[in-house]
Amino acid sequence: MTDWKERVERAQRGDLAAFDELVRKFRDMAVGYAYTVLNDFYLSEDVAQEAFVRAYLDIQSLREPGAFPSWLRRIVFKYCDRYLRKQRVLLRPLDAALDIASPGKNPHDEAARREEHDRVMSSIDALPDSERTATTLFYINGYSMAEVGEFLEVPVSTVKNNLHSARKRLKRRWTAMMKDSLRQHAPGDDFNERVRDVLAEVPRVSFTLHRSGKTDGLQRCPECFPFPACMRSSLEFMGEDYGFRAVEGHGSTWRLDNAYTYLMGVTGMAFKMTWKDGWYLGNPGINHLTDDLSQPYGRAFEAVGYAYDLLLKKDTAECEAEFRKRIIESVRDKRHPVIARGVVGPPEECMIVGFDEGGDVLIGWSYFQTAAEFNQNVEFEPSGYFRKKGWFEDTVSLVLIGDKVEKPPREEICRKALRWALTVSRTPRVKGGFSSGHAAYGAWADALRRDEDMPADDMDVLRVNYHVHEDAVGTAAEGRWYAAQFLKQVAEDIPDMARPLLAAARYYEAEHDLMWKIWGFTGGPARTDEGALNLADPAVRKKMIPIIGEARKLDEKAAALVERALAG
């Protein structure tokens, strides 16, 4: 088991390929060792799979990477002991009980071969524990005595002595058959797939992506709208390179991802604003953009040239089975991430990049995976991916990425996106009682006028109201800034529309700046109790209200210019 330190160190950094190599090397050893404890190869494979999953989750705790073999053995033993303590009834698959001869083989010869095999295995099982363990590990896949000793944490001389004693006890002809008999039970390559199937290095999505280090030497622009970000990450993983550009803002140079900008524009999220009375926490979600959720999804996939399926949840066992099946097919067969709403946190989009335990566990990225109120039942992998068991209850829908298809010409996509932007901006009401578009600014300002909604002695209420208010500020700040960047992209693609679109972009950028002015009254975009108390001050809110009115006027002026550009 020569130097596996480098592979272990890579796995500790979240390298799934390195861990897959470890599974490939040690799977026979793990199954063979479990067999010496449980005396059942089928159950031993199950135990070994669970042990490898636990090893991956805990691998960062291994202080000495070179000790991986013996560390893995102790994990395998722990899971064997757990099964034995449960006194689980051992059941073999039906095909193990019915030894049906394959076509073309003599049934009598096959029966004799099976009887001989069973006698060999029975003889091995009858050996003393130390001899049985050494024999099983040595013969199951040609491991060396040194490798067996490293796994068992015993000297090579001990392994050699145990093998010598075992051979003396066994009949000579059975000794020759041990290798073939044990290797029949060695797990194949599908063992790795059963342990885990995870897409490696899918780019992360997060509210704090812009704080997590530089990419291409530049700080990333914020990407706080989940669906466009999940689409951007999926496209990047699948090799669709839209590139980036360097932009100036807030005294720094930033990395602006072209794919995210494009998706913010074509989905309409860059032009969205909604407000529901009662200080509703879900205002920013894409599900309130329009009465028809297939609109933003369909527009996004058409614009990037992929088919897609939208599956809505039904509370039935059949629906759960279908969701599980489609996720496994997407990850295992298509090698595509799945975009899901919910799973971890509120019903907003997250990424499913893998599955475990036959789909009982989903693996991926969520904007809310580090939020204490949402991750009580969530584990984390060394790569940073979340692991969620019992995921179906918290899942609302799936968006499955299909095959690549021909997309419309770029100009057609852009014109269609601009018309959709006007619809989003000018629709005053959407389902569920939400004020929308330009009308939402008035509803937001009206809420800030109600002093009775801001009890200075009730921090729980103030925190919620402050959070809702901040969502509105952030939606306008980031959304309109990306609206401006999208219009600049379109102006490059369609020069005849450049003049009115660039003028509209300036209005959207001015609106973005107004939101920073509002943030200045509460202490900035960081959400603190001090900010909530500042919002409770009637004098502070009185200063905000006319700024919100000014932002609405800028939004309306920008929309008029977009309309002029379309009229041509």
Can you walk through the features of this model?
This protein is of the alpha+beta class and about 575 residues long. It has 3 domains: about 5-195, Rna Polymerase Sigma Factor, Chain: A, CATH 1.10.1740.10; about 210-265 and about 305-405, no CATH class; about 410-565, no CATH class. Helix content is about 55%, strand content about 10%. It has 21 helices and 15 strands. The protein has helices at about 5-10, 15-40, 40-60, 70-85, 95, 105-125, 130-140, 145-150, 155-170, 170-185, 190-195, 225-235, 260-265, 295-305, 315-335, 410-425, 440-450, 460-495, 500-520, 530-535, 540-565; strands at about 195-200, 215, 220, 245-250, 250-255, 275, 305-310, 340, 350-355, 360-365, 380, 385-390, 395-405, 430, 435. Strands 1, 7, 8, 9, 10, 11, 12 and 13 form an 8-stranded antiparallel beta sheet that branches. Strands 2-3-5-4 form a 4-stranded mixed beta sheet. Strands 6-15-14 form a 3-stranded antiparallel beta sheet. Helix 2 packs antiparallel against helix 7 and helix 7 crosses helix 9 (about 155-170). The longest helix has about 35 residues, at about 460-495. Residues about 90-115 have low confidence and may be disordered.
Annotation keywords:
568 residues; alpha+beta; 57% helix; Rna Polymerase Sigma Factor, Chain: A
Short synopsis of the structure:
The protein is 57% helix and 12% strand. The chain has 21 helices and 15 strands.
